[in-house]
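Format notes (please read before filing issues)

Several people have asked whether sequences and structure tokens are stored in separate files. They are not. Every record keeps both together, in the order shown below: the sequence lines, then the token lines. Line labels are part of the format and must not be stripped during preprocessing.
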Amino acid sequence: MVSRLNEACPKTLLSVVQYAMHGYSPHVSSLYPKAAENPLRSIHSDFLAKIGVKPVMSPEQFLRPGFEQEKLRFVLQVVKAVREIHKRMAKPL
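Then the structure lines:
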């Protein structure tokens, strides 16, 4: 998997993003359920737009060859946003 990450393989990176959204935190996964169709577009438009993060690339660019640095930045954006939401929601009242 590490070599696939180094290549910025869209399928591998999408699995990382999906884990962050739906496996890392029950708080986040309850807010943003899995999309049956086109999960990348759902993450791009629904999740990032709702939290006010401007994505570094479009879903179409994510799926094309190249754009390795931007793909990794996109994944990092999602992971950071998920961690922040999880921290806020996990705090005791």
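For reference, the curators noted about this record: The two ends are 39 Å apart (CA to CA). The chain has one domain: 2-90.
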